[in-house]
Amino acid sequence: MSAMTNQPQPNRILSGVAGLDDILGGGLTPDRMYLIEGAPGAGKTTLAMQFLLKGAELGEPGLYITLSETKAELVAVAESHGWDTAHITIIELLSDEGLDPRFEQTVLHPAEVELGETVRDVIAKVDELKPVRLVFDSLSELRMLSQNPLRYRRQILALKRYFATRACTVMLLDDNTSEPGDLQLHSIAHGVISLDNVVHDYGGERRRLRIAKMRGIKFREGYHDMTLDTGGIKIYPRLVAAEHHIEYSSSALSTGTKELDALLGGGLFPGTNTLIVGPSGVGKTTTVASCLLAALERGEACVYYLFDETRATLLRRSTNLGIDLGRHLESGLLTLRQIDPAEISPGEFASDVRRSVEDDNARFVAIDSLNAFLQAMPGERYLLLQMHELLTYLNQRGVITMLVLGQHGVIGEIQSDIDISYLSDVVVLFRYFERRGEVLTAVTAVKSRTGDHERSIRQFQLDSGGLTVGEALRDFEGILGGVPRYQGETAMLPSPNGKQKPYAD
Prior knowledge:
Rossmann fold; 505 residues; nine-stranded mixed β-sheet; alpha/beta; 14 helices; disordered C terminus
């Protein structure tokens, strides 16, 4: 279950949805009956079609029996996804022509036909076509014909026994129209897959899937984010970091700036994450871009997730500061992904990170910024817990991760909306301070789990040559509080106009 499963496991069949097979540890147990439940629009029909299409790809005959939709509607749904249903048999049991045995297809009118006749029609079609995969859509029609729970349960049990003797894997679709708390289908089915829609006040719907029951299979519990788009359902299995540990070298790698390496105790260490904290405009993004460039020049694949600013703005600003990322974009070594947090779920984002690391071999991941990621999805619960799992995963894979966290305020009291420092291995703090009518910037490392780091506060400066880190500001006190007091003679960094300004007045 540590990666998406592409090959069937012994005594398993592929469901047609890679993420679902991963959650189940290889796929479904064949020749069993499964319940797919969810409200209208949750994706039941799409999942069922993908199940049958996968069977057709493997040479397994598939049958779709519909009591609630017409064949034309189902074919139109498949065509909207670019699917060809030529190798799937669709039997329509609902029609306005009434029940007549002379028709090639059995026709069902729920208000006029007995339940027993309906079940016999289903059995006749299965005996005739001998499908390996079968979808029955939907149980709500069968429930209405049954008229009472006892008769309904008996008919479902009869169908289960029948299908068990026909070497047929069955999906029963149910739209949750039964009485609340009615779990009799759960007890009958071999497995239950629940699809759910979650609607927030802003942004698109969030779809998710949960395995409510699966006999004889160790599966990944809990909710898993999913999307329904052109091409079908995609499921993003919940990330479990402990499943992804690999061996890697833990030797320090340079940030590209010698003084910043010294401040961090040697540089950036694989398998750690660094949190860059400071007010707006202080140089957090540029610092990350500079470290990114050093990794690119070592030949490492990198991915940068942009939540705050656009890709064009980042490239233009970095180029103006002497940090040329464009040529690495052209070579494919760097990937810049602009994320719209209102349209992406945490599970989908984590899955994209996994794909970058495992498929594209990214060794450096930057997320800019956590403010946008955590605040732009206020309807999502447990985001900090999911971020903790994602960071642990990246550490287990030996990836260098850099996170940007913006703070409120410029001088004096600085505040953060969130506190994620306890999740970070290294915390780099930026602060503004004032001297003689000029706003300057200081940087310090306030935490490091990787070893000894400098406790000093250094001046930090951005200009056309990139970033520059000066010597320790040992003659100042109160810099982190924004009200410094000078008590020495140490020289400052040259200002951008080339003039050096001494500290002494």
